[in-house]
Design a protein that fits this description.
This protein has 375 residues and is mainly α. It is built from 18 helices and no strands. It folds into two domains: 146 residues, no CATH class; 122 residues.
């Protein structure tokens, strides 16, 4: 599959120092959780210090080796630095405590999310989502739902998109205050990361919120090609080339967009974009170029992942498409054909993408030897 997942911004750089009206909610929650769970943890730290913004300490690199919350030497170092107020270690701890197994600890995830909420918009929303989905009592779940509503009301795009899924799936406890389409449009206009143009187009084309509107779906796609190029452009070309939805399929436009992407400087040799171009050629009946281009995509994929880092099954999926093109067949891809399946997938995607954004490599800020010698 060639649809890309957005690369989320580094949260520490994005939102260091932000505070909102929900700080009081986080403080109350921390106190509640400490009262309930705080007495039986043997490797937690004292309340964190004021967050450290710019200084560098090489100890922080120990967090890169942390894969779960097992009490290793690296985990202990990472935990100590989080307690001293370092933000990157706090992010890694959220992810570490989320790993299934002996050391899975949702209460500690919540603790560090609340600390990060003072500086980080993603954590501000994720803390409420985690409380809503994993809260141990109805009161805690209700507190999470109220938090999501509050953040949606001040136009946090993640919260607005997530609240829309709760309303559609009827998972809310509190009465609806906003229309689902209004929440989605508000989220989309501010940030096209959480509700993608392709998602929005599917909603319109399939009529998940009312009558089918294929013209509006096409308008959404055409207008979004220019945003965050080539990420949205590639996804749009892929959808138009492979969709079985009549209101979205547009092989000619798909090929135009795919060529624009692969002809752009810096993107000619990206296998994900070359793969889309091959699918677009096939959708237009040009199987000669489809086969040639798909083989190039496979070669690029193998070369780029020569150290065995290829996602399992990815090469095989590329080869399966090549086989189809060699037989003179298009590649098509099914999408959720009913609103419940679509919004369930959107809800899970938001939760998964938020969690995965806490796992990132911390880069060293120590000067290189050459720089030191030059000085």
């Amino acid at each position: 599959m060639t649809l890309e997942t957005p690369s989320l911004p580094n949260q520490v750089n994005k939102s260091r120092g932000k505070r909102t009206g929900l700080i009081w909610l986080g403080i109350v929650l921390v106190l509640v959780l400490i009262a309930i769970y705080g007495g039986n943890r043997d490797h937690e730290v004292a309340p964190v210090a004021v967050a450290v913004a710019d200084p560098w300490d090489s100890r922080v690199l120990a967090c890169n080796k942390v894969q779960d919350a097992s009490p290793t030497e690296d985990f202990t170092t990472c935990l100590e630095m989080a307690g001293e107020g370092w933000l990157d270690p706090m992010h890694r701890l959220v992810w570490a405590y989320s790993r299934e197994g002996e050391f899975y600890d949702v209460e500690r995830m919540q603790y560090w999310l609340n600390e990060l909420s003072l500086y980080d918009e993603y954590s501000e929303v994720f803390s409420q989502i985690l409380l809503f989905t994993k809260g141990q009592t109805p009161d805690l779940k209700l507190m999470g739902e109220k938090g999501i509503r509050q953040l949606a009301s001040i136009n946090r795009p993640i919260a607005s998109a997530y609240l829309a899924t709760l309303y559609y799936l009827e998972l809310n406890t509190l009465p609806k205050r906003e229309r689902i389409d209004w929440l989605l449009e508000r989220s989309y206009k501010k940030d096209k990361t959480w509700l993608l143009p392709t998602d929005f187009a599917i909603i319109y084309a399939e009529g998940f919120l009312g009558e089918k509107q294929p013209e509006k779906a096409q308008k959404v796609l055409r207008e979004a090609v220019k945003y965050n190029f080539p990420f949205h452009a590639n996804n749009i070309a892929w959808l138009m080339a492979t969709s079985t939805i009549s209101g979205l399929a547009d092989s000619s436009t798909a090929l135009d967009i795919a060529l624009k992407v692969t002809n752009a400087k810096g993107y000619t040799d990206r296998y994900v974009y070359v793969d889309t171009l091959a699918a677009a050629y096939a959708a237009n009946g040009d199987y000669t170029n489809a086969v040639k281009t798909q083989q190039s995509a496979i070669d690029l994929l193998v070369a780029e992942n020569s150290e065995g880092q290829t996602e399992p099954g990815l090469v095989e999926s590329f080869k399966q498409r090549l086989s189809l093109f060699e037989q003179g067949k298009n590649y098509t891809e099914e999408v959720a054909n009913n609103g419940k399946a679509f919004f369930t997938g959107l809800k899970k995607m938001i939760e998964s993408d938020l969690l995965n954004s806490y796992y990132f490599e911390i880069e060293s800020k120590e000067p290189l030897v050459e720089e030191l010698e030059g000085n």
